[in-house]
């Protein structure tokens, strides 16, 4: 039965000053009618256990003889405090006294004692005023629910500090004759109960309890017996017995599967592993798609592949690509325009209209897919790249910059339905830290329900000759399946369904490491929408034939990105009539898709794997962990651009952008000469300096007052001296997504470095 002592206000004139009530859980011992005035009042304490409070009284007396040898009985001094656990005493508190009164009875005014009690709660111990009310220790002891139907409750303890003339109680009850007076108040015949009065000693272990001791002895003997039994089994049958048990867990299907694909070595430590480890190993093996991963062509010499690719190479048709540098401002604006105005937004050099892309955003038809990648290992950080501090004046991370660009676009669209859902794919090692980072930063002002995080799959790593690597004796070495794993993940993890429910039509996908990325770029979306294509790609023109960047082209009549390592020097250097490289569309992992294309045409299980030689930790033949110092294995990866093969020839478009405006990746630490935190940071400063100059601002050195020159962007040179004088110039994306809104802010003004608009 529940027992509760909880506060409430009473709606009558005899409201308890302590605001006491009996909770509903106490029913049917919560209230009763006061026989004196006929008013229903709360019972305190309430509940069945309190109502059944043990109220027999005991008086223990010791037989003594006086000087005349006449027998008489002296009462043994008992005390009823110090019998409850300290933790229990802290749970029970008396209500506060009414102001001006020092009477516990007044604190319980308007309440009644339980029906089976002969006295009120504030008068439980007349011999000790401090042992009354809800802090009466006899009540506290009784309220602790017993574990078994037969139980003991401590009634009192002998006072050891009182000595009579002929006896001392310091060592307990002295030897002699005693008698016990019992006032029988607690009936037990109705439920065939029994009562006992027990005199016992206590020790540091507590009171005497033979039941607990018997349990301890029984458990100890059982453990001793079992240990002996297991010892006999171990000596007589091990290791043959254990090996047999382990092999029972290995069925023929697993062995046949490994034999079919030449991966029997995965079981080399099976007899040494524990049963639980082998279960983990078998589960790991069963999760592998051997048919798609264990193919001989992945591990053969690739020279013949280069030759076969070159025979089918074709440059992009002019009709499916457009260069922003060769596009008129009016046509660029056409991609933005479709009748919906941007309020309070000014594009330099004049006010402009919202574009096709922004109109689609304003209708809630645009979503963003972020490939958040893995850890920033090459940056010397275990954090996800998006959380890396680039050293900006604002100390904003890539995640924050991109979130604020989305926030700004939503505001520019100017409608309540202008929501840009953000889908973020992370790896096994970065997912949780990424989610926590967004939570910690309150999602950078975006609505939490419009940001969805999901994890890409991991697949096994292989030796150079195609054998799956064991990271531990019972665990396969695994790695993320590349950014092309996006398509399987968004299909299996409900992302495509969520997009469809939101009415999404256009999707912008990009990699996190580009500090200049225009997230959900309305011009790019407007361009692709105007062309009525189902797939598009942004590109930058290759700076030279040997630049380590893949090129977008056609292979065998299908669109594809061919890695620079797959092109011979002869092909790389071919030029057209205009003197530009024929294969010049450098891929920057910045793509456009329609939802219909992703749902209906992309077949992720048909995408090929690409090889990347890496240093992969493994265990040797003795099971010892090894950290290699040079590439010893292969990671298979799918690439996001491999879906180009599913695009119809007239449904693909390439938008070639200005490198220094839109592409500055973060890949290496500052010891490298390019793609470092420094080049990324200075590229952003350079872009923002150009924005301000275009908007009519004059920038001077904050120390000498001289005009500040505009250096070359770091993405255009590896010569640090050509951009080392780049000044700090940072514009918050919350002020301007691109260069809009700056005309009214800075036109005709002189700005001193460092320039920070936030």
Total helix count?
Answer: 22
Cα end-to-end separation = 63 Å
Strand order of the largest sheet: 13-31-23-26-22-14-15-16
Number of strands: 35
> Percent range for helical residues?
25-40%
- Averaged pLDDT, please? 86
SS-based structural class?
alpha+beta
CATH topology of the largest domain: Spore Coat Polysaccharide Biosynthesis Protein SpsA, Chain A
CATH superfamily label of the largest domain: Spore Coat Polysaccharide Biosynthesis Protein SpsA, Chain A
**Unreliable runs:** 1-19, 302-306, 338-355
The CATH architecture name of the largest domain reads Alpha-Beta Complex
Radius of gyration: 41 Å
The percentage of residues in β strands lies in 15-25%
Q: Tell me the name of the CATH class of the largest domain.
A: Alpha Beta
Largest beta-sheet details? 8 strands, mixed
Described by the principal axes of the CA atoms, the overall outline is elongated
When the domains are counted, the total is: 4
